[in-house]
């Protein structure tokens, strides 16, 4: 019997039985309905059974075990009575009109979809009532389990891939005379295993197969977290249909997408990095090992722009009057959690002047330009890899587009657009080949719950990065660009090891940003030391205010990477609402990598990092994969007491401040930028102590101009003062023009306003509540941006322990739903939230 999952209330279950069968490709065909706030259509899944994969790779065949001996309860299949319709008008897909399919508009009138409608079914995942024998030794049918929630599933059917014209080329026969289940599965096997240099042919056949007729409905049912499907008589994964079509729609309250209005008041919808990832957008396999490719066609009103994770810069195809479709595809196998979509009235920003050199540098390189015969170069499964393309390896700046709501065009043109090229170029100079061929950047609606999120080929940024100087915009952009390598191209095999994504992105953002600014080495060192000071303060606050068990970077310890016999597992604390506000994985990960870089020296460390990226891109890793390779590359004289075991003990498997970090911080001297802040703090304390009526001869204080990070540190120190009088606060605002500074600075300023009830500046707090929801709704501020994570906030406890709350008149004036009923969480190190993305993590923030 398979081990039952018994997650705690705050654990996220990954239900898919990936040890038995794997999705290799998804084809989505969806329509967006803004009136009903749903996506509706079909998804076709192409599978490969694990024992076939293992035979192929020469590994030992895995024995499948029974998940339950109890009988299964499933929806009774009913024939499709919908009239056959012309796909040129009923489907948003274009270019593949060989087949008629049942209308996607079948409504769920039977109540059989099982999504929380039946109290018995909503009881949780510990129940095994839906589980059947998944092995090949019993009498029960094989059960396919997909991760799924908040979806209405109407029908599941097998796809008759043998009906596709020309498909006989995959059978070895000139024509197909007899169609069996075994033949259909053999066709799918040949299709999913085509070599990388035939990817175009492969994707064409995927598209044609996705519109082939059905050849029998399948039994299905759902519970809280999964969709279970079986075929009567198919007792093993090998016997189960390898191409199935699911007819479904999302629900308006589904947790994977947000339906809202953009800053111009126009409707839009986007994936926001939910803790449940994409399982409320489409049924999928979520465990990191389920690496797949996909193609998606989305139909919408012609006035909308559809952006999506995809290698191509899609253009709309006009359908019937007033409708258009957008088609995207991905040839690099990725976890389904990294799929991202945004539909809205986005406007594209273009540089005012673009030189011929710029155009040549950004020339789009298609996968067909690479020599993919060099199969042995990379360690990942075969796909059209940019690391094997000489032209791609020297491409410093990949093609990119910038989109935003219409009313933010000017701010994007001024602040964001000029930063994209230097930040991409800086990243290439540090890590080498860009893993992805192009990039879209979108300024998302004001309710986006973080500062940024990275997905394959697309980055979401909060409007908060556009305000103030370009510092916040640049550091956030660099952080998200870094995720292309760490979090997407290289992912964690166990999602609890978030530091492998966020720690690396936080450490690299400083390096990228220094190079993008073309700073001299000493200037770069000063800025990075100041950032380390801010992060150190943040980490100290984190360990003081959160449970010890949530401060551990490798919580599963020796069981890290382990799954049940079926492949299902749980993500510890994945649904804990407090985890959203924690930055430990950013900060401790950052300080560990900083510690290792200092031990090796920057030149040696970053040369190693390029080697590591070249070795592990396209793969899933555990902490020991990185650490073992690193230690093998350290000269013996620098290794000293470093070992994988010691690093696990001191940094990854213990709560609190790591001892090596504590020792290093106690021994270090303040950098020059921090010392200047200290001097300014003393000036302000003197100003605050002066009586209201001063002596005429008393000299005025002269204040220095400060960098944004210096201002953050200054305000942090001033927040530790018990009282600041209104005159001091007024002078502080005027001296540094605080209401025009970036969001990091303004957040600290708002804390001072609320703490000291400085009513003259309440308008600044109102503006912050309305315009910076990416900060107020999330204290996930990656180590890139805001580096102070007091458990407090605008409305909480100050650093000195004093309690203060947002006045009711402020809340009523803003009409904004603020987290914590009027408490604005102080973000932590990154401004990001939720999605850990990529080659092995859920989306990345």
UniProtKB/TrEMBL annotation:
Protein's UniProt name: Aminopeptidase O (putative)
SMART domains for this protein: Leuk-A4-hydro_C (SM01263)
This protein's encoding gene: AOPEP
UniProt keyword annotation of Hydrolase present: yes
Gene Ontology BP annotations: proteolysis
GO cellular component, one term: nucleolus
Similarity annotation: Belongs to the peptidase M1 family.
Cofactor: Zn(2+)
Swiss-Prot/TrEMBL keywords: Hydrolase, Metal-binding, Metalloprotease, Protease, Zinc
Keyword Zinc: yes
Peptidase M1 leukotriene A4 hydrolase/aminopeptidase C-terminal domain span: 672-787
GO terms of molecular function: metalloaminopeptidase activity; zinc ion binding
